[in-house]
């Protein structure tokens, strides 16, 4: 370890933070939105600061912490891999970095493109911390997460542009994460 083991300047959350040495099982997650947010926030790709993307249109609130895995890359829209992190204790601040155990994911199709959401639990959580697979979570909790994503972009009098196409367990989620980390390296190189 060097004498200076901190960043003198704030690192970019997507490019400057690590995905975690234990990925794909335990990953770092940068949280953009909490279950208390009525606004959709996103990290500004140029500056790394959190910006307001849009107000949540529906009355539905995010049922879990929501963010992304640093140094991951997904597709044409130049975005990192999304992650939902379940915690028994409320975390009511965004722009936090936490370690999360990956359990599985949701296959989501948004305007014809894959937009998977990794499902994880806060590492060391006293209620959910022992979960290893997506099936270890209550069905009602997973249904809430699916409902949120199925409805959070709805516009009155327009057909839905997003659909939840299924769930998958850790093995498939690990493949998705590895691919997103490899795609990041291919697209951006070792920027971190």
Overall SS class? alpha+beta
Query: Segments where pLDDT lies below 50 for 5+ residues?
Result: none
The tally of strands reads: 9
What is the tally of helical segments?
Answer: 2
Give the neighbour order of strands across the main sheet.
1-4-5-8-6
| C-alpha termini separation | 16 Å
- Which series of helices and strands comes N to C? EEEEEEEEHEH
The helicity comes to: 10-25%
Mean residue pLDDT: 91
**Assembly annotation:** single chain
Q: Name the overall outline.
A: globular
Percent strand equals 25-35%
Query: How large is the radius of gyration?
Result: 16 Å
The major pleated sheet works out as: 5 strands, mixed, barrel
What characteristics describe this protein?
5-stranded mixed barrel; alpha+beta; 192 residues; 17% helix; two-stranded antiparallel sheet
What does this structure look like?
With 192 residues, this protein is of the alpha+beta class. It contains 2 helices and 9 strands, in the order E-E-E-E-E-E-E-E-H-E-H. The chain has helices at residues 139-151, 170-188, and strands spanning 26-33, 39-43, 50-55, 65-68, 82-86, 96-110, 113-114, 117-122, 162-169. The protein has a 5-stranded mixed barrel. Strands 2-3 form a two-stranded antiparallel sheet. The two termini are 16 Å apart.
